[in-house]
Design a protein that fits this description.
single chain, mainly alpha, 6 helices, 71% helix, elongated
Amino acid sequence: MNAANPRAVIGGNNPPDPIDVALEPYGPILEEVANWLDGATVENDGQLKATDDLLKELKAARKAVDAARDECTKPLHEIWKAEVARWKPTQDDLDRQVKCLVAAQAPYKAKLAAKKEAARREAERAAAEKAEEARRAHQAANAASIEEQRRADELLAQAELAQRDAARAAKDTVKGMRTVQVYAINSHRDALHWIAKNDRDAITAFVEEYVRRNFKQRPIDGVTVETKKEAF
């Protein structure tokens, strides 16, 4: 190559940016559009026709950019999908093994949890009993009797020990178990009335979303459907 015969490639030795390539045919259009975007609005048929033509070209430019983007990203996306797919069977099988092992543990864990819960209730019962016994002893003890005061204090110490035992029992839970709350709808009608009374916003949101999805398919009481033209 010499000065009389330069390389006729946009960007010299570097490939052109695909975005620039996609937009290159629309350069004059974009410049003209910029002239229109000064805050003024269309005022006559001639301006409307001109802006309609520009809109058509702008939408074509957007499609060209989308196509160029897809052309550039599709190979990368395919590589990404293939790599994700390669990992997924292993991930799924590990998840499956976790579920199976959890299921294998579940019956024994349930028995163990029930046993610990029974122990917790018993410890709380014993602590409450000791606390009441100590309270009564202190109330009944003769303030002038050292033996009665010693006995009352001993019962109080036993009550405190029992309370610590109850606290430890409450913390002694089965790992891998959790407390969950479940529900069953006994009456959809009653539930609906309760929601309407106590959470009107939820009813409003449901109605608006239902109407949005269904107003074209069927008439809905309380809803007016209007057909109108709008720019796009």
